[in-house]
Amino acid sequence: MELMKHKHRCTVCDQGLNHREILEFVNQQDMVIGTRLHSLILAIVTRTPVIAVSYHHKVKDFMDAIDCEDYVILIEDIRGEKEFFLQTYRKMRKNWDTVLNRFETIASTMTENEPKGTTLLEKNDIFRQ
Question: Where are the alpha helices (DSSP H) in the chain?
């Protein structure tokens, strides 16, 4: 965070949160930039738009599966594409209502396929303490 140009706009949550508190926290965000698959799933469950940093093929595969390949960057490409996050964010903000509807549709589709969105998290052991 100290290396960030606009660190005054950033907050680090360093509290130990349970699964309900995590979902509430994610739900309060306008957008999630996530590296871990769990962060992406949590965002989708709360219908929060995401930008993904793919450190592992499963992250990119997930984003491809939900038809959001435009919102993913491979971790090895971050240094070479310094403007990726800003450009992606600007593109999303330009059509914000469309983006929100898109993620609402993604969440609804996932919920239809899996009656409880939190079941996705349980399957991925996120609730295990």
Answer: 19-27, 37-45, 57-65, 84-94, 96-113, 117-123
In sequence order, the 6+-apart residues with CB closer than 8 A to the CB of 68 are 50, 52, 102, 106
Say if residues 102 and 47 touch (Cβ distance below 8 Å). Answer: no
Q: What is the pLDDT of residue 76?
A: 94
Residues 22-69: tens digit of each pLDDT: 999 999 999 999 999 999 999 999 999 999 999 999 999 999 999 999
Residue 128 confidence class, pLDDT cut points 50, 70, 90: very low
Instruction: Tokens 């491979």: give the residue.
Output: 74
